[in-house]
Amino acid sequence: MKTLPCFILSSLCSALLLGGCGPQAKEQPAAASGTAVAQNAGGTIKVGVLHSLSGTMAISESVLKDTVLMLVAEQNAKGGLLGKKLVPVVEDPASNWPMFAEKARKLLAQDKVAVVFGGWTSVSRKSMLPVFEELNGILFYPVQWEGQESSKNIFYTGATPNQQALPAVDYLLAKGVKRFALLGTDYVYPRTANKILEAYLKSKGIAEADIMVNYTPFGQSDWQSIVSDVKKFGSAGKKTAVVSTVNGDANVPFYKELANQRITPDFIPVVAFSVGEQELTGIDTKPLIGHLAAWNYFESVDTPANAAFIKSWRDFKGDKNAVTNDPMEATKIGFDMWVKAVEKAGTTDSEAVQRALIGVEVPNLTGGKAKMLANHMISKPV
Fold first, then answer.
1. What is the mean pLDDT of the segment spanning 273-280?
2. How far apart are CA 72 and CA 86, in angstroms?
3. Is the pLDDT of residue 18 over 80?
4. Burial state string for 76-112 with b = 16 or more CB within 10 A and e = fewer than 16
C-alpha cells in the first residue's frame, strides 16, 4: 500500500485499483430503443452539469459544478471538440432526489446535451438512472458509491467499498481497534456500505455487540446525544473508532460536537469517507488533527500533474487558497475520458461514445493512468 501525504487531518488512502476487484457488474441491459440526440447543431456541443447548488449537499456538490465549467473552458481554449465549442448547461436539483430525475430529463430531452456530469449521493444517482436508460444518455458519476449496480448509461469514476472502506477498516484493525461505531446519513450508500462493513468486521472476529450503527437524516444539525452515545460506547475498555459515512453539511456540526465533547483521536479516532478538503473549509480543524479520512486522492499529492491542476483551479476561482478534492479528480478523469472517446468515435452520438469509452486511458493526478473498464468502473493506481 502506498500512503499518500496528509492534508490537515491525518489521512489514509486506499491503494487498490479502482474497479479492479469491486462488485462484479451484472450483465448490461440492451440499449434503449431511442438514442439520445447528442450531435448538436450550430457549431456547439452541450454539456450537462447536474449538481446541487443549494440545500444540504451544496457544500460538497457546488465545487464539482465549477470543476466542470473549468474543464469546459480549458477544452474550448484548445479549440473545442470535433471543431465545435462546448457549452455547459447547468441545472440545480437543490438536494432534492426526485428533482435529479426531472432535471436529467430536461437536459437530455429538451436541451439535447451530449453528456451529463452530476450527482453525489447514490440516491440521486438511482433517481437519475431510469431516465438515462430510457433516453440512452451518458452520465459520469464521480463519487464513492456502494457498487452492486451496472448500467450501460452510467460511467462510475468513484471508489466502491472494497476500494475505500475496507482498506480503511483494515488500517483501524491493524491499529488494535476492537469496537466500531458506524455513523451514516440515512440513504443508499451508507446503509449498503455499512452492511458490507458489518459482515466484514464479523469475519475478522469483531462481535456484534462491538458494532454500533446509527443513521441520521440529511442536514442533521443536533449531534449532542449521538456523540454522547458514541462516547459511552467507547468507554467500555476496548479501543474504539468511528467509521463515518455522514454526508454534506451535517459534517460541520458533527465535527464541532466531537470537539465540544472532547472526543480526541487518541480516545476515539474518526475515519471519514465523505469528508474532504472542501468540507473542512467550514470547520475549525485544530481540534480534529489526528482524525482520519480515506479517499483515493488528496490535494497534498506531490505530482507535477496535481500541481498543475491545483494552479489551474486556483486561477479559475481567482482564489489562491481554493482547495481540490477526490470527486474533483474523478470528475476530471471522467471529462477527459469523454473527450477522448468522442474524438475516437468522431461523433457525440451516445451509442457510439459508450462503445468508444471502453478501454480509454487518461492520466490521473496521482501518477499513472486511469482506464475505463468494461464494467464502467475505472482502474487507477493511487
1. 81
2. 6
3. no
4. eeeebbeebebbbbbbbbebbbebbbebbbbbbeebb
> 134 with 206, same domain?
no
Asked if 245 and 191 sit in the same domain, the reply is yes
Residues 114 and 78 in one domain: yes
Among the listed residues 280, 373, 382, the one whose alpha carbon sits nearest the alpha carbon of residue 329 = 382
Judgement on whether residues 155 and 180 belong to the same structural domain of the protein? no
Q: Give all strands of the β-sheet with 378-379 in edge-to-edge order.
A: 361-363, 369-372, 378-379
- Select from 258, 293, 328 the last residue of a domain: 293
Q: Is 16 within 8 Å of 163 (Cβ atoms)?
A: yes
Rounded to the nearest 5 percent, the helix, strand and coil shares of the chain are: 40, 15, 45
Q: Which residue has the cell 468494461?
A: 374
- For residues 276 and 247, the answer to whether their CB atoms sit within 8 Å is no
- Cα dihedral 205→207→210→213 (10° resolution): 100
Give tens-digit pLDDT for 160-213.
888 899 999 999 999 999 999 999 999 999 999 999 999 999 999 999 999 999
The grid coordinates of residue 245 equal 459515512
Instruction: Determine, yes or no, domain membership for 89.
Output: yes
- Residue 372's SS3 state is strand
Q: What range defines the domain where residue 58 resides?
A: 44-159+305-373
- Is residue 244 within 8 A of residue 193, CB to CB? The reply is no
CA–chain centroid gap for 238, Å, is 32
How many whole angstroms separate alpha carbon 112 and alpha carbon 116? 10
Average pLDDT over residues 85-89: 98
**Residues 151 and 170 reside in one and the same domain:** no
Instruction: Specify whether 261 is located in the same domain as 336.
Output: no
Position 3 pLDDT exceeds 60? no
pLDDT confidence of residue 7:
34
Global pTM?
Answer: 0.83
Q: Are residues 151 and 238 in the same domain?
A: no
- CATH number of the domain residue 115 falls in: 3.40.50.2300
User: Which amino acid does the sequence have at 52?
Assistant: S
Rounded to an integer, what is the distance from CA 118 to the centroid of its chain? 10
Rounded to the nearest 10°, the torsion over CA 123, 197, 59, 263 is: 150
User: Are 208 and 323 found together in one domain?
Assistant: no
Under DSSP, the state recorded for 88 is E
What number of residues does the chain have? Answer: 382
Q: Among 293, 324, 354, identify where a domain stops.
A: 293
